[in-house]
TrEMBL record:
This is Oxysterol-binding protein. Keywords: Coiled coil, Lipid transport, Lipid-binding, Membrane, Phosphoprotein, Transport. It is a peripheral membrane protein. The keyword Transport applies. The gene is Osbp2. Signal peptide: none annotated. The keyword Transport applies. Residues 66-88, 205-238, 255-279 are annotated as: Disordered. One of its GO terms (biological process) is lipid transport. Residues 175-202 form a coiled coil. One of its GO terms (molecular function) is cholesterol binding. It comes from Psophia crepitans.
């Protein structure tokens, strides 16, 4: 069993039992899962399997108790003020002084007790009358009793003294640690301020830098594009860039129009679409070049429910960051007490649903006859989910356990979506989307986050599955790391970095997308994304390029060759391509969006009140509704009430688990209402999948099975 500090620094492959799911597949197999990691264990017999399950459950219960004893899960402890630390230090000094006095008294009692005993012994040996001798004997007996009692008290005082000295050292160490943390944080803030000033001076001293970068960008689009990742200006603690060291470097060169019967169209005209540009099999690409925004505008002409186009403006409240941040370094985001001042009036379930904003990319992918062509649309869809994050620095509400969110757009766009919070520690949400236009998407996402002092890392764990009904093509990919910079000093901004590997498990096609991290000194386009679509044999068919906040383009490869060796010793591949086609372009944000949390048109409708939804729906969450209305003080009170209610339910559930284990009974723990855990046939991971029943319950308005969470 490990302490919480040890759990945070374990080796690769370790599973934290306190948050793990323990399941049995059959008579001999055990499945251990935590977030996106799953282990399959096999016992020799059913008896041995049961012994292991019992041992693991007992260890899990003990790990939960250890975690609760070390720190309250809610993280709502108030940071100690400077006056509290001074008072603690004064108390320690007073206690130390009293302990010295007590030690002196111990020595004096022992000394005077021994002297009294000697005096009485000498008096008893004197020749005195018989009556006096009896009285002296009685006094001597009483002195002996006093000596025995004094010795017992001395021993007790000595034990107390040892114990107090031990705890005094522990308190001194805790106080010293708090001082060091404060000094370290102050030094970090000072260093950040100096770096900020020096960067501002450097920027003012190089006025030609911005125009130079713009020129390089425009020429690169028309001629050569490099996918070589630049080094980040982050410090050595930036761990999330390690995975990109093996990314293949390549160069794309636009093919000569004369040799490939081109129409002479350039990049700026590519979005208009030219039938002669690519082969006839690429007709789906041609239709995609027309603006998706215009297409959705045309759809607006159809009779449908009118959605809201604005929410109340965000209030301008100030907040003292120091009182919140000083004790947050190294903790998980879910364990830090956060007022609604840091939030936006949407839950994490609604943010997850927001990934469907560009669902029409999947509708177009259904029409593709070629699997590699279809992969291009899937890749564009995977990138489009990040477009809303560029200005969205606020934190969504953490969903309560059992909270749900539905988005029924079956009549308007042909799909309906359902999310449920299926776990609280670690926080995990299951998502299922069905489209009658020919595709189904499902995922279970666990959010791991760390506050590093300078920045906040958000690491989504879990796979996203997408299946097309007619072809049976099954795509799987995972999200990249999101980083929120300038947590303490400066303006908040978000970056995406890492790699996405999309695999079609039927045809074995792959797409490797690289999100280049921002670097102050890089000449690359900010928020750049590049990638290559290849078939099962590894032959490259398309090059993907663009930015995750604006658009993605696709270029068909007509020839590939090995180019010169780079400075790192890696040989670059040169792809000769046709002119790029725009697959996806970001919708323009609505008017006054800066005062509405930078919400997109879809995000503005996600928390709009609707009838007939489940009583656990995020739209009915009172603290979120109060925040959207601008009543933040009331929202903070309501948020605290809801979290305390959830903690009480969790404590009761943990007590029931311990009681069941002591009695030798099985305890299933929390069971999701609309989802169930299964071992995925493709990835082999334990994942929550939709088991049905929600939309039928909505039609009947039978919500009797829903828990009371609000």
């Amino acid at each position: 069993h490990r302490t919480q500090a040890e759990m945070a620094h374990t080796c690769r492959g370790t599973i934290n039992l306190s948050t793990a799911h323990i399941d049995t597949e059959d008579s001999c197999n055990i499945v251990l899962s935590n977030g996106g990691r799953t282990y399959h264990l096999k016992a020799n017999s059913e008896v041995e399997r049961q012994r292991w399950v019992t041992a693991l459950e007992l260890a899990k219960a003990k790990a939960i108790r250890m975690r609760n004893n070390q720190s309250d899960d809610s993280g709502d402890e108030e940071p100690a003020s400077q006056s509290d630390k001074s008072e603690l230090h004064g108390t320690l000094k007073t206690l130390s002084s009293k302990l010295e006095d007590l030690s002196t008294c111990n020595d004096l009692i022992a000394k005077h007790g021994a002297a009294l005993q000697r005096s009485l012994s000498e008096l008893e040996n004197l020749k005195l009358p018989a009556e006096s001798g009896e009285k002296i004997k009685a006094v001597n007996e009483r002195a002996t009793l006093f000596r025995i009692t004094s010795n017992a008290m001395i021993n007790a005082c000595r034990d107390f003294l040892d114990l107090a000295e031990t705890h005094s050292r522990k308190w001194q160490r805790a106080l010293q640690y708090e001082r060091e943390q404060r000094i370290r944080l102050e030094e970090t803030i000072e260093q950040l301020a100096k770096q900020h000033n020096s960067l501002e001076r450097a920027c003012r001293g190089a006025p030609g830098l911005a125009s130079s970068s713009t020129g390089i960008t425009s020429t690169a689009k028309g001629s050569v594009q490099s996918a070589k990742g630049e080094a980040s200006d982050e410090d050595e603690e930036t761990e999330y860039f390690d995975a990109m060291e093996d990314a293949p470097a390549f160069i794309t060169v636009t093919a000569d129009p004369k040799h490939h019967r081109r129409s002479g169209s350039n990049l700026s005209g590519a979005s208009e679409g030219h039938p002669e540009d690519w082969n006839l099999e690429d007709s789906v690409f041609e239709s995609s070049n027309q603006s998706s925004y215009n297409e959705s505008t045309c759809k607006d002409l159809l009779p449908k429910k009118r959605r809201r186009t604005r929410i109340p403006d965000k209030p301008n409240y100030s907040l003292n960051l120091w009182s919140i941040m000083k004790n947050c370094i190294g903790k998980e985001l879910s364990k830090i007490p956060m007022p609604v001042n840091f939030n936006e009036p949407l839950s994490m379930l609604q943010r997850l649903t927001e990934d469907l904003e560009y669902h029409e990319l999947l509708d177009k992918a259904v029409k593709c006859e070629s699997s590699t062509e279809q992969m291009c649309f899937v890749a564009a869809f995977s990138v489009s989910s990040y477009s809303t994050t560029v200005h969205r620095t606020a934190k969504p509400f953490n969903p309560l356990l059992g909270e749900t969110y539905e988005l029924d757009r079956l009549e308007e766009f042909g799909f309906r979506s359902l999310c449920e919070q299926v776990s609280h520690h670690p926080p995990a949400a299951a998502h299922h989307v069905y489209s009658r236009r020919g595709w189904t998407l499902w995922q279970e996402i666990t959010i791991a986050s760390k506050f590093r002092g300078k920045y906040l890392s958000i690491m989504p764990l879990g796979a996203i599955h997408l299946e097309f009904h007619s072809s049976g093509n099954h795509y799987v990919w995972r999200k990249v790391t999101s980083t929120v910079h300038n947590i303490i000093v400066g303006k908040l901004w978000i970056d995406q970095s890492g790699e996405i590997e999309i695999v079609n498990h039927k045809s074995k096609d792959k797409c490797q997308l690289k999100f280049t991290p921002y670097s102050y000194f890089s000449r690359d386009v900010p928020r750049k994304v590049t990638g290559v679509v290849s078939d099962a044999d590894g032959k490259a068919h398309y090059v993907m390029s663009g930015t995750w906040d604006e658009k993605m383009e696709c270029s068909k490869i007509v020839q590939s060759s090995h180019g010169s060796t780079s400075t790192e010793g890696k040989q670059k591949t040169v792809y000769q391509t046709l002119s790029p086609k725009v697959l996806w372009k970001k919708y323009p944000l609505p008017e006054n969006t800066e005062n509405m949390y930078f919400f997109s048109n879809l995000a503005l409708t996600l928390n709009e009140p609707e009838e007939r939804v489940a009583p656990t729906d995020s739209r009915l969450r009172p603290d979120q509704r109060l925040m959207e209305s601008g009543r933040w003080d009331e929202a903070n009170v309501e948020k605290q009430r809801l979290e305390e209610k959830q903690r009480a339910v969790r404590r009761r559930r943990e007590a029931e688990a311990v009681e069941a284990l002591e009695e030798g009974k099985d305890y299933e723990g929390y069971i999701p209402l609309w989802f169930e855990r299964r071992v995925d046939a493709v990835t082999g991971e334990l994942i929550c999948v939709y088991k049905g029943g929600y939309w039928e319950a909505k039609d009947k308005q039978d919500w009797s099975t829903c828990p009371d969470i609000f």
